[in-house]
Amino acid sequence: MAEAADFQGTSASPARRWLRRTGTLLASAPLLAGLLQLPAATPADASGQESPQAASGAGSVSVAVDSLTPSAPTEGDTVSVTGTVTNNGKQPVTDAHVDLRVGPSLETRSSIDALAKKSDDVQGPAGEAVGGKYTEKFSKLTPGVAEPFNISVPVDELDLGQDGVYQVAVALSGETAAQPWDQVLGIQRTFLPWQPEEAGTKTKTTFLWPLVSDVHMTAETGSNEQQTPVFSNDDLAEEISPGGRLDQMVSLGKSLDLTWVIDPDLLASVDAMTKNYQVRGEDGTTTSGRSQAVAKQWLSELQQAVAGKEVVALPFGDPDLASLAHNGTSVTGSLSHLKEATDAVDNTVPTILHMKPSTDFAWPVDGAVDPSIMKVATSAGADKVIARSDSLQDNLSYTPSAARPIGGGTTAVVADARMSTAFQGDLTQASASTLAVQRFLAQSLTLGLQTGKQRSVVVAPQRTPSVSQAQAMAEALGALQGGNWSESEDLTAAAKAKPDPAANRKVPPASAYPPSLSKQELPRAAFEQIAKTQKNLDNFKVILTDQSRVVTPFGRAMNREMSTSWRGRGVAALGYRDDVKSYLDGLIDGVKLIKKSETKLSGRSATIPVTVQNNLVQGVEHLKLRLTSQNPTRLKIGGNAYEEQRVAVNGGHSQSVKFTTSANANGRAKVEAQLYTEDGQTYGEPVTFDVKVTEVTPTVMLVIGGGVLLLVLAGFRMYTQRKRAAAREAAEDTAGEADDDVDNPVGAPQNPEAPGDRLKEESGAGSRADAPQQPSDPAPDTAAESADPPGTGERVDR
């Protein structure tokens, strides 16, 4: 009935081709009758052994189809096939010729897969040769030499019938010295979609165009105001340079109708390259990046390419949802990083691309899902999960629409597995790329011919296609959008399409998750290390005067630590996490206590200084310094076992904090200094030092007191002696004057050196500047300061 219906709707040209094929069959009837009268097979043939013709010469020539244009021909077109044939045997091939052979149409998608696996099998069916002038001949094929061919055939000569996918084979036939008869020595099959007229019901096709890359930026930034970023390598510059992978993705995608799927980390990284940035070399040193112009050009082209198109933004860093679901949810705080990565989109994509993206979609690796992945994928706000049909499978004879509700307000958007995986593998050879394109188109047309109902199909290719893969994708998508059986649709529209009630809505169990993908996941240890880094960051940020300089770069770095790009690169992932941790530890260590040597304390009380050093650019505050005596019976700090003081230090400075101490006994006391944050968390390593106490005892005080008393008494005795001597001198002076009046009359000469004057000098009544000190005079209170260097111990102020 299906064939009859097709014949009723056939145009004049297909009807003519049907009559031609019928005549050919009738003409070949006598030949078939003659073949039936041939003798029975020889015993060798009956035993299953190959005949001489099908033996050593079969497959000795490789055929490569480098191009087939147009990929999806219509009425009036000419199909051109180019490629090469290479004699891989040891003998020359003579009387060789290449021709096209058209086989029957392939009715199912599985038959396309089966033919693709045996595309170069010379033993399989090859179809009817076009022959005639549409054959290219070679007089001789020398071993090891590739010969090009180019065959162009009007589509009317291919005898294509009803709409569908046809097998087209390029076959090389010839003779060898060992087998001197014409035989097929090499063949390459491909697919030719045939839909010459507009389909009554077109398939709506959504093609995701991913802009995702590996992790390139580190957590390290410069100490300047701009916080110059540091890149772990210069690979991103190569990707966005002309001819690079990401440059090709933008150049090829801008002329196609598709949905862009972008990792905001990629945009942030390229945007950082438009300014000053540093690149770390293999030896650990950094040099200035030089790709500012390239980065600006790439972003400008991307802005133009996405204008008016749908853009879906993944969470920042493209976190591995499956790894998080299987190994990270049991680690506290892991899910919060997914929420932060989703929130970071608003500060990245609209600023750089000047448009608002959709954040409603989550995309697990290869679309493989299980209940835990679905739960994690929707935990950060997404209500649509991009799955794949080889994970969420349907037991139907046709391909249903992509969207299907799975409960809880979540929609699974199931991408077609066959079309999504069509461009994987090595497509650097033109022949491999051509086969991938034709196979993709064949799957699409066969899918569209399955039912008369319109369906929405989603294609989700690999996240990071190579340049050759991207070129093949663009070629196929261009042919599809120029064909007659498909029309483009945005991902949001595909998710809202009416779901097929017969489609599977049950998420597969965890046991069905592919083991090959499980082996590539981030381990639990990775999430534990991320959690430890987050804890250290939380303790560190509270002391900073400008937290954003640290919180933002480290927050983004931890998002990158969960990236899908680490799959299968466990060693590199661990190295990145270690680098982030080491850099944060270095910043934390920038605020620390200066180590102290043994401190000497004499007397009952003194002050002990402890120095806090801040090597950061910004100031720190909200810190407490606690000084604790580990032997409070001998030495107390501030009257207790410990004392705390608040600390605030400007960037690049240090500050000494003084603590009052009191001693009760002689000997050594161990003291510990420790920084704390205001919430009571320890900060940094403690500093421990010894305090040597030399206490002044009561006996020593009595001795000192007695000495002072003796000095006072001696001074009093000297004072009384001097007073008496002065009185005697005054009396003697009076008596002398009386004698002078008697012995020396008026006008008599005076004695130049009176005895009284000599007495005054001897008694000290005159100037005492040169008089020697008495043995009882006290020594000076403070000794002269020594210029010698201090000892190993510190002497504190009292």
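The record above closes out task 2.4. Task 2.5 opens with a second protein, given below.
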Amino acid sequence: MGASFGRGGATTFQQDLAESDCILIQGSNMAEAHPVGFQWVMEAKKRGATVIHVDPRYTRTSAVAHKHVALRAGSDIAFLGGLINHVLTREAHFHDYVVNYTNAAMIVGEDFRDTEDLDGVFSGFDPEAGSYDTATWQYQGSHAVPPVGGHGPEQAPTTRHGRERQSSRPERTGSGGPVYHGRPDSDPTLQHPRCVFQLLKRHYARYTPDVVEEICGISQDDFAWVADQLVANSGRDRTSAIAYAVGWTHHTVGAQYIRAASILQLLLGNIGRPGGGILALRGHASIQGSTDIPTLFNLLPGYIPMPHAHTDTDLESFVADDEHACGYWANIRSYLVSLLKAWWGEHATVDNDFCFDRLPRLTGDHGTFQTVIDQIEGRCKGYFVIGENPAVGTANSRQQRMGLAALDWLVVRDLNMIETATFWKNGPEIETGEMRTADIGTEVFFLPAASHTEKDGTFTNTQRLLQWHHKAVEPTDDQRSDLWFYYHLGRRIRDKLSGETERDRALLELTWDYPTHGDLDEPSAEAVLAEINGHDGNGEPLSAYPQLRSDGSTSCGCWIYCGVTADGVNQSARRTPGHQQSRVAPEWGWAWPANRRILYNRASADPEGRPWSERKAYVWWDEESGEWTGHDVPDFDKTKRPDYRPGSGTVGPEGIAGTEPFIMQSDGRGWLYVPAGLVDGPFPAHYEPQESPIANLLHPHQQRNPARQINSRPENRYQPSAGEPGSEVFPYVFTTFRLTEHHTAGGMSRWLRHLSELAPALFVEVSPQLAAERGLEHGDWATVITGRSAIEARVMVTERMLPLRVAGRTLHQIGIPWHWGPNGLTTGDAANELIGVALDPNVHIMETKAGACDIRPGRRPRAAALNRLVAEYRDRAGIDERTGTEHSDDPRQAGG
């Protein structure tokens, strides 16, 4: 969504779903995984909205939807592409919205070639490096700049002669598309053969209902019904919403799943409008917050990219390209300087570049999956694990445990004695004999953590909403909050430094002066929030991010959170009851940015500033007062007139016209086409998962995403896919899912008696037909096998997982919940034992939602016999180090 609209957060808020005329839930079992927010779906249904659930499994969400549409796991782009084609071929798009608010009219350079021209890849693809040079993707008449100031790629691709080659840079992970300079050539009639609109029509022309049926297993009648519902409930007077979760993100084309939904919603005119938008459902209390103030290796707070070694030599080089572009990213210097002032205070000055050189520099991919390889190979010696349980909760858990076993030290902070803390004594490798406890040198420190009820702080949830939670009880014994741990760890490290080196001074001069309270010297969470909000030169709280300055007179720990303590009031702690305010409820908590609840809401009005319809009025231009007004904080310059046109060469926010709602994009428009910023294509294209028993029917010579991120290693071998020798060994599709009764990898739920009683054992969902085919008995045991491991589970024979007719054959799918491990009150094998590490190349997310496997009755073998079973399957499938590693399906390169 960052590449499509300008920000990676949900475009709308959960309560606004009640205003929808149609809600498509796909890639999510919202009723079970997000039950509190699902009340607004039920409210919409009560008011007459159509609710559609598209999912491989029939779930509690399906049970209350008007229609459940079963599809094959991993085929969503084909389905969404079919919907896009339906809209375009029937001219059902919202024309006035599309021509004015999207980049449909932009003309692409004549050297661009589509997947339809090059048999499954876009122009600029290097099959050896597995990456694209995006030079041919650019608009005619403008120059794109790699995301944020030309920062280097995380891994520099090389040519066959070993020279570094210029490549696309990854999406800024929620911070908008790349900037470009100048205005591209355009055709507002949308007739030019190389305008985005015509390229889009051509790209999806083959995504017809019969092709969708063949790829996804969705009948043409069901497809037509869904398409008709979305079209009938979109336009001037009606709006449709889409909600998704990790069922879309956990794929090797996960970013492109969301891009396809973004294209569909832009065509239908549903972005920025009440009852419309795309809701990215976050599964935990502050997942959104952990990307805003990031736990991601490549971002600084507020989605500012982490500087790269060699290219970002000083502050000037870091901000140069962005400052000369249109839109709000042109103010990046103010955002970054204010951040540096928040971190180094009086020590950050103009003379020392505001301590810019103290920021870490990226030298490559430092994501979790590269880190575990570094552990295995001896480059990473120590590890902090906080709020995660990689020994069972991460793809290819065996690889994770191998990394843990190679460490010198490991710190685990958790509520319970999770598997990551005990892998050295009861991990599966101890049983199989691959590891011996006596040989594992990792020194493990387990530190009890305080739960959220035992500490103050904020959650930032699904809809970008900050909500303060007050401590209910004091932590007991030696349990401590994460804030306490990091604050006191930092204090102790600083006490040991001499201050004689620049490295020491970088730590000693950090602003680390938070007040503490109580017997435990707990740091003040409100003081941290105030630092994040920011202050002016007089120490007064700032009210909004436009107040940030680049001269060092303001400080702000996260520019998008600026305003959360405006007027010295903790805005996130507001709890005005709903009946005392409007339906938008602006006085319940505080949403970034600037307490806007629907992003891009300028698009809820027509180019003249009038609501598209009275029924869907949200914000509008008030000529009498000379400002934008309405039910929400306008996501636009409040006094910018609809007829404002920037002069030639105007940059920054002033470079955005009064008719361009997407203010974080350098052209102010929603992007149907991404000229740079995504590493695997300007349009979403259907590719099969890394491991699939079905061939790519759209592009027979390009089975997988050619730019996916892969790393074949002895502990991470890939399986052959359809069309490759040995693929018949793994004939079934499996997908993982969540239960309401358990939480993530089970670290917070498997120790609770009532939840363990409600969901007492790992199970697999199979259809009656698959059960008959493989001799599986309801309630008995089954073993599921992939090329990496085998797990056992109880069998649940259910019609919730019916077979599909795909590519002329019957295809069976298996559902596996992923909450188990060997510790706790309810124990079982971990689903992540089955899954290999193959990643989306934009955001490094693993593919857990679509894989290929075999299943057979009975319990899995024990001890060394388990490894022999897996080895037998690998031998039968012919798996070696090259299997599944080709980027371009050239028979001379293919493994398998």
